[in-house]
Structure formats: structure tokens, C-alpha cells
Design a protein that fits this description.
Layout: E1 5-12, H1 20-37, E2 41-43, H2 58-61, H3 68-77, E3 81-91, E4 94-103, E5 106-112, E6 137-140, E7 143-147, H4 157-163, E8 169-173, H5 187-202, E9 206-209, E10 214-215, E11 218-219, E12 225-227, E13 233-236, E14 242-249, H6 250-259, H7 268-279
Parallel strand pairs: 1-2, 2-3, 7-8, 8-9
Antiparallel strand pairs: 1-14, 3-4, 4-5, 6-7, 9-12, 10-11, 12-13
Helix pairs in contact: 1-3
Length: about 280
């Protein structure tokens, strides 16, 4: 039987750049706090186990999905669903910016970031391979979830494709520094607009987890937020480390998608035909 209400949480943390052991302890502390609060899904930011600006440090922190550290996280999670960011080494020298979903001693799902930004102060395409798959994970019966990592949500086609699977929850781990794109572009305002739009347009609760670390001259501004299926912000963090939580409901999703049937009316065949014409030019 589908749970009507889900208690979800975000651990907004400041990872120590390149120090996986220190970051693991931080994860374990927040997992303990979240379990005590009865949180059922806990989301950490993008690259939460490593920090963001790794560059040459990538080799030293990369791990496979069978790494004991992920097993330790999964054991600590118990029956809670925990999503954490790491550098996945799939084959020797093949690295992905990835997010692992773990529970009850095992890795359930891994999403590899597909849209690697290479503009402003961002240069991910220099270090990582592009993910090639977009698959939901039904970690809790009746609550299929999709994960999109940071810039994945800025390619409008990717959230749209994800929403065609009709997920009940969208996980959005990010690493957003205030001025990393340009002096004119406001990342804090941009992310509010982005998550408001996705939640309201598709009738889906959205969890956006940002870092609040300081890495060199880059200040990650925090502002993690949880939205309901109508695009209303239920809770929002400030600029410091924090655990925030809220409840989201299937009832809201049903009503939101009835009022605004974006997914029902998406007309994927028409979109596919229009894309084929443009690709064929």
C-alpha cells in the first residue's frame, strides 16, 4: 500500500575539499540526526563526500560503487533512503560526477551527471565523462524518484524526460556558488526560478540540496529547499550547515497534476517528430 505522506530531509553541509574521511563522518552525523527525526528520504548535496573543486584531486577520491565507504553509508542509513554525491570510477580512469542512493546496507541506484557545465568558472567536462542514462528508482513503494544533478536541471529536455516517468519525488543535489557563472547571473535567484518552475509545471515535490562550503574564492551559498507539488516552498535553509525537513503527500501530487496535466498532455510523439526534423536538417 502506497504511503500517503513522506517525511523528507536535506542535509546542507560544507564538505571538506578532498577529505573523504572527514566528510564521511559528517554524513554519518547527519544520518543519525535524520533517523532520530523520522526522516525517510535524506538528500545530501552534489559531491557531498568529496567537495566540488577537485580538479587534480579527482584521482585520490574516486571510488567504485562497491567501495566500503558507500557500504558504511548504506549500513548507517538503515531503512532510510540516503542520497549522497561522490566521484564514481567506473573503469580505470573513467570518472563520473555521481549521486548514489543507498539503504539497508546496499546501493540501490546511481545517477551519473549528464550535463557537464563548461562555462564561467565551471570546467567539469575537462575532468569527467558524461552520464548516458536517466532512470527512476522506486526506493519506496508508490514513490518513484528521479535524480538530476545540478546542471542537468538547466537542460530543459532532461527534467521533461524525467517527468515523463511520472516520478513522485525529484531529487536535485547541486553545488551552486554565488558568482561562479558570471557577475551578472544570480545563482540564488536562478535556482529559485528553476525549482519553482519544475515543481509547479509538473506537479512534483522537489528537494534541492546545495553545499554551503567555501572553496578558495568560491562561496557555495546554501539555500537548500523543499517544495511541494504545487511549487510552494515548504522549508528553506540559510547559508550555514543545517538539517531541514518537511512532509510531502501523494494527495497533493494527484491534485496538482489534475489541475495542470502537463505530463498527460506532453505529446511526446509530436515532440519526437519535431526533433527529428531539426536533427535531419
Amino acid at each position: 500500500m502506497t504511503k500517503e505522506v513522506l517525511h523528507v530531509g536535506i542535509a546542507q553541509i560544507a564538505p571538506v575539499l578532498g577529505d573523504v574521511e572527514a566528510n564521511l563522518q559528517k554524513h554519518l552525523n547527519y544520518i543519525k540526526q535524520a533517523r532520530e527525526l523520522g526522516v525517510e528520504v535524506l538528500l545530501f548535496p552534489e559531491l557531498s563526500l568529496t567537495g566540488y573543486s577537485l580538479r587534480e584531486k579527482t584521482l585520490g577520491v574516486a571510488m567504485g560503487t562497491d567501495h566500503p565507504l558507500l557500504k558504511q553509508l548504506a549500513d548507517a542509513a538503515g531503512d532510510m533512503i540516503v542520497s549522497a554525491g561522490f566521484i564514481e570510477e567506473a573503469q580505470a580512469g573513467e570518472f563520473y560526477n555521481a549521486q548514489a542512493m543507498v539503504t539497508d546496507g546496499r546501493v540501490l541506484h546511481v545517477h551519473r551527471k549528464m550535463n557537464l557545465p563548461n562555462y564561467g568558472g565551471l570546467e567539469e567536462a575537462k575532468w569527467y565523462s558524461k552520464g548516458q542514462a536517466l532512470e527512476p528508482c522506486e526506493a519506496i513503494a508508490g514513490w518513484p524518484m528521479h535524480t538530476l544533478i545540478c546542471a542537468d536541471l538547466w537542460n530543459p529536455a532532461l527534467p521533461h524526460l524525467a517527468m515523463l516517468d511520472k516520478p513522485a519525488l525529484m531529487l536535485a543535489p547541486v553545488n551552486s556558488a554565488a558568482d561562479i557563472v558570471s557577475d551578472e547571473f544570480s545563482n540564488p535567484q536562478g535556482w529559485k526560478t528553476n525549482t519553482d518552475f519544475i515543481s509547479m509545471t509538473y506537479g512534483v515535490p522537489v528537494m534541492m540540496a546545495n553545499s554551503c562550503a567555501l572553496e578558495g574564492n568560491s562561496r557555495f551559498w546554501g539555500g537548500s529547499r523543499i517544495l511541494d507539488a504545487f511549487g510552494h516552498c515548504l522549508v528553506e535553509a540559510g547559508g550555514e550547515e543545517a538539517l531541514i525537513s518537511a512532509t510531502v503527500s501523494i494527495k497533493d501530487t494527484r491534485e496538482a497534476r489534475f489541475q495542470l496535466p502537463t505530463i498527460r498532455d506532453a505529446d511526446s510523439r509530436l515532440v519526437l517528430d519535431l526533433l527529428a526534423k531539426r536533427i535531419g536538417k
